User: Which sequence fits this backbone?
């Protein structure tokens, strides 16, 4: 059974249809990427899945509809979103941001343990744990956003352009982290501009265009698809 | 008698009450960017309910110490005000969460008027006096006097403010309040029930307002259905003076405004050669408000990107 199943998802802003009837299916443990040009509707799709936008269509998570679940209940069900532009709490300290990620949990010793684990994954965050998060560099903020999402112990992690605006070295580091998280069994839906890296890292991929899914399949195959190579890999 | 010291003491005591009320304005503003102009009326209801319970207990002739009678009245008033704060947000503000900003502002004024009239219907138009059941011993310090009541008001206000700071800075709910103030949508993603946090903020501010209501009515010895208006405006001024949205600012602004008012009242007679008297005290709060709005609208501790907690 798939962990997430989306049927006929439609989202509009006022009169503008940004997502037009897309279907998605993600099995437990998969790393799936969603690529496409600017304005294709990727962020809109993720926001609709996280219930931040009103949407039409069916969304099943673990076989149950979450179309009516309030936003704050999703994280308790195991869904975490790292939003586009990171969305960290700039005036909270780094550690407070991480603790906010664990807001839905009550198991204090395990939260402590996960905090330490995060600091091992991102030593930079440990060095700056008392610093105001707004003063971190862009890359550090991205680490914080991912670390914070992990603090909820998600089953399904939705990542919106985690590599945006980062230097190549940092991009590699972020992708390495995504692979690590995936290897630990977390199911991931990754939205990316960097199609090459995303296809290389993921098992399967969906390609969006103008609010619809125009192509989908195994990432390894798409990576060699001439159409994809031309449109998204710039060849 | 040392006028300066005396006015300083009076100002700090009064200012600590302003600070408690200002916290209610500033916490709500921090989360919703809304000026809850009905907050002064919550203070008034707190005073009225305390007095109603006190007078009822006195009339019933129960034999308990005055302090216990007042404490009972205060507890009832806190409960009533918490319920009132919750209801105001639910009924008047929540439906307007996405409306243009003028709408909730006008609604706030409407809620004020409703509460004043309800209080007038229940308790009448006359001044209600606070029975002399609290210890009023006067202590002499350096040529000035301070009463038991003043000490009690000041210490209780400081304890409550310290408690509030701890709550906001150190607890899970406090962290959720600050996160919600900064980015409600993201806080929701973290599992914070934003509506519950907003309700909690109103309830917390209203509890402080109830305590302030008792303090003011005990201090001046009277309560009145219209008392919330001026108190609310002064506390709002204190919040703006400190930097609205900023908790430390509300405390600083409250104390400062109390001292400014009291000093001005103490010296105005001398300065104007007796032309103006200390009953002009109330006017200074508005000089301060206008001054701050003209010269430093962000307040003393507020910055453009205000640290709200
Ligand atoms: N709040 C909004 N109001 C109106 N239109 C919007 C809004 N947000 C997005 N859109 C429109 O919806 C479409 C899809 O936007 P979306 O943000 O989902 O694209 P995207 O695939 O994430 O693009 P990018 O790669 O640039 O982040 C765009 O045409 C955009 O202009
Ligand atoms: Mg996007």
Assistant:
């Amino acid at each position: 059974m798939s962990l997430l199943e989306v049927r006929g998802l439609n989202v509009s802003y006022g009169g503008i249809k940004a997502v037009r009837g897309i279907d998605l299916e993600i099995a437990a443990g998969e790393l799936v990427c969603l690529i496409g040009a600017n304005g294709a509707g990727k962020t809109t799709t993720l926001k609709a899945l996280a219930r931040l936008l009103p949407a039409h269509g069916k969304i099943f998570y673990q076989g149950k509809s979450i179309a009516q679940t309030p936003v704050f209940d999703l994280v308790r069900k195991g869904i975490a979103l790292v939003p586009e532009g990171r969305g960290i709490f700039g005036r909270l300290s780094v550690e407070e941001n991480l603790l906010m990620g664990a807001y839905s949990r009550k198991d204090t010793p395990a939260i402590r343990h996960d905090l330490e684990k995060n600091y091992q994954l991102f030593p930079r965050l440990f060095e700056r744990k008392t610093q105001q998060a707004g003063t971190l560099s862009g890359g550090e903020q991205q680490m914080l956003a991912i670390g914070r999402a992990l603090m909820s112990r998600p089953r399904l992690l939705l990542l919106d352009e985690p590599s945006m605006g980062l230097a190549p070295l940092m991009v590699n580091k972020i992708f390495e982290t995504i692979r690590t998280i995936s290897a630990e069994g977390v199911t991931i839906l990754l939205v990316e501009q960097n199609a090459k890296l995303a296809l290389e890292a993921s098992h399967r991929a969906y390609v969006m265009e103008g609010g619809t899914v125009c192509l989908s399949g195994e990432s390894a195959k798409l990576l060699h698809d001439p159409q994809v190579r031309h449109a998204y890999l710039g060849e | 008698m040392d006028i300066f010291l005396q006015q300083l003491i009076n100002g700090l005591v009064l200012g600590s009450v302003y600070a408690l009320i200002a916290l209610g304005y500033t916490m709500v503003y921090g989360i919703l960017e809304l000026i809850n102009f009905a907050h002064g009326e919550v203070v008034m209801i707190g005073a009225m309910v305390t007095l109603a319970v006190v007078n009822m207990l006195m009339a019933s002739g129960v034999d308990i110490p005055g302090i216990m009678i007042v404490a009972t009245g205060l507890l009832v008033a806190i409960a009533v005000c918490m319920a009132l704060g919750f209801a105001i947000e639910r009924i008047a503000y929540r439906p307007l969460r996405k409306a243009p900003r003028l709408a909730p502002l006008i609604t706030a004024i409407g809620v004020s008027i409703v509460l004043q009239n309800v209080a007038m219907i229940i308790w009448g138009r006359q001044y209600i006096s606070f029975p002399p059941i609290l210890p009023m011993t006067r202590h002499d310090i350096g040529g000035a006097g301070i009463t038991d009541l003043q000490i009690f008001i000041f210490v209780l206000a400081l304890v409550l403010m310290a408690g509030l700071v701890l709550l906001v800075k150190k607890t899970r709910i406090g962290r959720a309040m600050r996160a919600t103030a900064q980015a409600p949508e993201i806080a929701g993603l973290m599992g914070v029930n934003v509506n519950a946090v907003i309700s909690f903020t109103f309830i917390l501010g209203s509890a402080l307002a109830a305590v302030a209501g008792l303090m003011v009515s005990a201090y001046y010895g009277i309560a009145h259905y219209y008392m919330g208006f001026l108190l609310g405006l002064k506390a709002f001024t204190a919040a703006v003076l400190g930097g609205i949205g900023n908790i430390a600012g509300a405390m600083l602004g409250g104390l400062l405004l109390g001292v400014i008012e009291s000093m001005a009242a103490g010296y105005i007679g001398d300065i104007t050669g007796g032309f103006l008297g200390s009953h002009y005290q109330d006017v200074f709060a508005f000089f301060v408000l206008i001054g701050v709005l003209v010269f430093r609208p962000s307040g003393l501790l507020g910055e453009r990107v205000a640290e709200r907690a």
About this structure: Chain A has one domain: 31-53+70-232. The pocket of adenosine-5'-triphosphate (ligand 1) is lined by residues A 13, 16, 18, 36, 38-44, 84, 193 (CB under 6 Å). Residues 168-183 of chain A form the longest helix (16 residues). Chain A touches chain B at residues 50, 52, 70-76, 80-81, 83, 87-92, 96, 99-101, 103-104, 148, 152 (CB under 8 Å).
